[in-house]
Design goal:
The chain has 107 residues and is an alpha+beta fold. 44% of the residues lie in helices and 18% in strands. It is built from three helices and four strands. A hairpin with a 2-residue loop joins strand 1 (19-24) and strand 2 (27-31). The protein is globular. The mean pLDDT is 86.
Length: 107
């Protein structure tokens, strides 16, 4: 139930041209096209606020999320896809270590 609810929240929090997919057992990846790093932060904050609002203890499905944000600058700094995912996963781990319901941006 939690994964379905989170998928619904993510889908409503992104634009029609963005891509959200399940990346692992309890992980999702979201690709925000043509945006600044501040847009990624706003999207993460929107997801966290929606979870806080829609997943109160009285509604039965309560959970927290951690979000790692990596802004990839395309042609100016070319990375292999594996490196992009590795950096995003490191950032997600840092967010998880800080506790639930927060985001962390890549250094």
């Amino acid at each position: 139930r939690c994964l379905k609810k989170l998928a619904s929240i993510i889908t409503r929090s992104i634009r029609s041209g963005d891509v959200a997919s399940r990346y692992g057992p309890d992980e999702f990846a979201i690709l925000l096209a043509q945006c600044r790093s501040s847009d990624g932060v706003r999207c993460a904050a929107r997801i966290l606020e929606s979870i806080k609002t829609r997943c109160r203890s009285g509604e039965g499905t309560r959970f927290t999320v951690s979000i790692g944000i990596l802004h990839y600058q395309g042609a100016r700094k070319v990375l292999r896809p594996e490196e992009v995912l590795l950096r995003a996963e490191r950032t997600l781990r840092r967010a998880k270590m800080r506790g639930g319901n927060r985001y962390q941006t890549a250094a």
